[in-house]
């Protein structure tokens, strides 16, 4: 389980005088995952700095005894500036400081800073600290001006579910090859009509997995189809013979061991013919579909189609039947499992389809919740497994973590009804400030065995939402 908090964004578009000579506009401070981002427009047009003086402006985050200085902005009089440059030392606050000569300072500075979030920052105040220095780094004066305060909105703990790794990762490639055979022949001629390209499709599919050392081909399945013209018994012989011919052709090219290649056949592809007619604009489309669906024997059905609807039959013979003479293929394979996180990261970038959900989860643990990297892992996982409840649940939690409530709601629609999924719907309702729905979901999740739901219900009551 990963604790997550939703931060209230502090925004002030007004221009305010903060310390002598410095105004601030377009100020914002917000929590972004594991970081706090501070943005503002510093107006330095009223800041005057003598030749032998320096002014250091430092945003300062403080809460009790805990504090943190953000990146400073230094403005130096001519003598002070060249003192640092000539002596080869860092400026007053160090090498990361944004430094300017007083005579060349811009009127406005777009200030951006991002720092890692820590628990003490909840309730912290951010002020702008002005320090004036003379020669020998003598501190002459100090001044503070309040910028804003950071506070966390109530947001319950999110529960990510670790998926079960597959005992064996199996996948397959599927396709269809439209190999042309001379009339009543079953022999394959690679150079005949489109055969070079169609045979190449199967070869490329096989090569795409054979060339990967992590993949082992377990079977190649071929199914030959013929179109309905000619007697059924003859078409059956053609379908069987043509599938066997393709099997021998692939075996000669690939040299598979054992009985990896298997074949099947469909003497006449009436289902394919029906799909074509259903999408067509044929004059007697409805009657032809009824004929195809009838209980007539294949030869009687084909004769009635030819004799009753001769014009449509000729059209189908020319435009539909060639596409029914095909071979479907499926290449099944297994993929080895991965445990090294760096290797999984590389595969996620290159071929994420090789990973299972547990491997995605291992990578996600390497990142801080709410960061872009963390979110990307779960979004990639749900793209690879779009209908998996656990993938959708974890993606919903990641979306909530970064404030994408619409995305979280979309993922939760496919997350199932596990205790964790019901709890996540309650967490989302809290973020949406729908506290009645939140209590309903959390009570349901608690009844299903979710301990965290009980904790969150107590927090809701404590916060008096």
Automatic annotation (TrEMBL):
Domain of life: Bacteria
SUPFAM superfamilies: OmpA-like, TPR-like
Domain DUF3868: from-to ranges: 23-102
Record protein name field: Tetratricopeptide repeat-containing protein
């Amino acid at each position: 389980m990963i604790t997550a908090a939703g931060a209230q964004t502090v925004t002030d578009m007004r221009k305010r005088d903060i310390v002598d000579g410095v105004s601030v506009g377009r100020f914002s401070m917000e929590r972004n995952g594991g970081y706090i981002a501070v943005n503002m427009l510093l107006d330095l047009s009223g800041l005057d700095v003598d030749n032998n003086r320096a002014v250091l402006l430092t945003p300062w985050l403080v809460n009790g005894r805990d504090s943190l200085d953000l990146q400073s902005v230094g403005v130096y009089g001519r003598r002070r500036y060249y003192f640092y440059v000539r002596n080869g030392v860092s400026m007053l606050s160090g090498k990361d400081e944004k430094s300017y000569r007083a005579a060349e300072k811009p009127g406005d500075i777009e200030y951006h800073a991002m720092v890692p979030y820590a628990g003490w920052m909840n309730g912290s105040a951010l002020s702008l600290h002005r320090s004036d220095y003379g020669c020998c780094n003598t501190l002459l004066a100090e001044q503070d001006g309040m910028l804003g305060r950071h506070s966390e909105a109530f947001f319950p703990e999110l529960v990510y579910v670790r998926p079960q790794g597959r005992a064996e990762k199996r996948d397959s490639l599927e396709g269809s090859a439209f190999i042309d055979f001379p009339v009543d022949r079953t022999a394959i001629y690679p150079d005949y009509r489109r055969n070079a390209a169609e045979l190449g499709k199967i070869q490329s599919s096989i090569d795409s997995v054979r060339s990967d050392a992590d993949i082992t081909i377990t079977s190649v399945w071929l199914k030959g189809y013929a179109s309905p013209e000619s007697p059924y018994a003859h078409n059956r012989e053609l379908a069987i013979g043509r599938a066997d011919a393709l099997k021998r052709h692939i075996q000669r090219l690939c040299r598979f061991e054992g009985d990896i290649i298997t074949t099947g056949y469909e003497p006449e592809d009436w289902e394919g013919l029906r799909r074509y007619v259903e999408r067509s604009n044929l004059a007697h489309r409805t009657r032809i579909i009824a004929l195809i669906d009838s209980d007539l024997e294949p030869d009687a059905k084909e004769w009635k189609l030819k004799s009753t609807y001769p014009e449509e039959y000729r059209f189908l013979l020319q435009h539909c039947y060639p596409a029914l003479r095909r071979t479907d293929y499926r290449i099944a394979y297994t993929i080895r499992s991965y445990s090294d996180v760096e290797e999984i990261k590389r595969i996620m970038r290159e071929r994420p389809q090789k990973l299972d959900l547990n491997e995605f989860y291992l990578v996600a643990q390497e990142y801080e919740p709410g960061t872009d990297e963390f979110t990307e892992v779960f979004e990639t996982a749900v793209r690879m497994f779009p209908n998996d409840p656990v993938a959708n649940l974890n993606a919903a939690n990641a979306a909530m973590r970064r404030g994408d409530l619409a995305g979280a709601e979309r993922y939760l629609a496919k997350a199932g009804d596990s205790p964790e999924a019901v709890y996540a719907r309650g967490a989302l309702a809290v973020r949406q400030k729908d506290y009645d729905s939140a209590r309903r979901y959390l009570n349901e999740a608690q009844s299903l065995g979710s301990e965290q739901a009980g904790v969150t219900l107590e927090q809701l009551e404590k916060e008096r939402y």
